[in-house]
# Entry
Amino acid sequence: MNSPGNNLKDIPILAQTEEACSVGNIRALLTEITARLEKLVINGETGMIDLNSLPLAPGEYELLRLTLGQGEVSARIEAIGPSEIIETRYPGVWWVTHYNVEGDIVADMIEITHIPEILMSQPADFSEGLELLKAQLNEGQS
Amino acid sequence: MNEHETLGERLAQQGISRRAFLKFCTAMASLMALPPGSVTAIAEALVKAKRPSVIWLSFQECTGCTESLTRSHTPTLENMIFDMISLDYHHTLQAASGYGAEKSREDTMRDFYGKYLLVVDGSIPLNDGGVYSTIAGRTNLDLLQEAAKGAAAIIAVGTCAAFGGIPNAKPNPTGAVAVTDIIKDKPIVNISGCPPIPAVITGVLAHYLTFGFLPELDDLGRPKSFYGETIHDRCYRRPFYDQGKFAKSFDDEGARNGWCLFELGCKGPTTHNVCATTKWNGGTSFPIESGHGCLGCSEPHFWDAGSFYSALSMSSSPLKLATDAVVAGAAVGVAVSIANRLKKSAAKSAHQTATIADLEK
Amino acid sequence: MNQELFLTWVRSTGLDIAIGIFVLGTLWRLFEIYSLGRKTDLAVPKHRAGASGLHTIFRRSLPPPGMFKRSTVSYVAGYVFHIGLFVIVVLFAQHIKLIQGLTGLSWPGLPSQFIDATTVVTLATMLLVLAERINKPVKRFLSTFEDYAAWTLTFLPVLTGYLATKHLLLPYTLMLSLHILSLELLLIFLPFTKLIHVFTLWGSRWYNGNINAKKGVPV
# Structure
């Protein structure tokens, strides 16, 4: 029977190789993305897929990155930690990854939309920016 | 003490942009397994919510739950929850100590009576009048009962507060019990785990802030959105389980290929938590992915459920009766055999030869 | 008592008691049967090729001439579910682990999908066997409570095991506990019902073969 503990020192440390052990999640995800993209085309309905809730096998996440690829747009937001937004090689399919200050992923979404909402300037912030601009102009005048 | 301001006002004070707030809400929605499309609604609700007062009582615990929640010194999205709430009393995190700290707690309980959130970690010892864990000369039992009176809801963080935890394991020398064993008249959420995943703790707090009530609970008082499924249900090694590909010992060929750890004692099938999806250390990994079976730490009495290395299909403790049963069985068998033989020879000696005269009777 | 405590109980105390009674009961019954001994046979034994106790042990596994056509279902279904039970109990990795924990012996198992299929077939044939018993008038007439009880005691572990692994009907922890409990009930009652044929059939076949071999008849 197993009795670990006595020979912990004997267990060699091996680094995981690049070969992914795929268990079929990539294909399933691509199918869902395709379906949602169709909806976007037909009636403009946007969609979001939360990657955090999917149990991807090690290597499948990287495989998904490779599969979806990189399109024409990449953006970076700095708000309590960085957020990276790219349009994948399939227009309308965006990949939004939110990191906290320490670089841990706190949210990972695939958005099927015209543009992810977080990329757009927020109306709530307009007025504040407006105030600051006006203050800047007043300063310049006097 | 004034009423706390709304979250929106607090965020504006701190110079947190709407975009940053949206990012926080996205993270919270992902955490609470809410549909990603609901982020805007969550943001709108949160912005208008009043910051609730929170008292955190630490009892017979190892502080692992607080450690789990406060992993860093720099502000992170998880820690933003502490900006969202007004944490008015917490042993490890507060700057005050002694009478000043106790007074702060008493003031909060009085000013926000019926409205404050009570968070408890650690079990409550009951033996010998509860002397095994006291704060400022008062037993945990006493403190809990007093604080619970004015609480809007109680959040029991960690398996100790939720189910008794390690102090409650055999032989339970301090008479440790869970919060639910003492408080019967308040809504209680059990966030079990040893420790719980930090995101789960913040997720429940965020839910309360957003919606004003506690999330839906299972029959053990745990929020269904985090404890509705077992590790086994979401484990990425499940295909190997279904095919019967098991690692036989640590670091053997099967283990290196990432095969299922059932035979090495993994309690994933009977353990409810989100470790398989949310994972630990910001999504780095979780025990099974790192090659060790699940301990079942979010289930009650997991310390007494047999070895962590004996599979679920094995017995959880060595058999005690088997050898005695062999002896007893043999003894009974021999005894019955002797009785049978005696019966046989008695019948034989009682045998009377029949004669024609008997037949003609 | 909550689900987790119940599971721990069936895995420890329950199993202990069940195996204890099983061992006690089996030894008692076997002692009881075989201690009766045999009357000394004073006749000169006749010899015939193919007639011996050992021959009969194997020959009795085949249906006697003509019986297969008369009771096809009994023989086919009977064989299928017995082999199925053997495969499930002895070639399913999780069960091998249980045996290894108790005895130290282990061997490789079959892929789980194979065991799944075997379980479905076993459940179906056991239901068929029960239907036969109820529908055939002679069988129904001969059947007692013990026959139906023995069937139930054997059927429940297979059914609950399948429901547990497929996460059907009840929450997994409870389903698993019921599976282990049903097995414990089987173990407890086995030595005291006709299920003891597991151990006694070898002796019975040998005895019949031997007795008739001495008379020069292969059976």
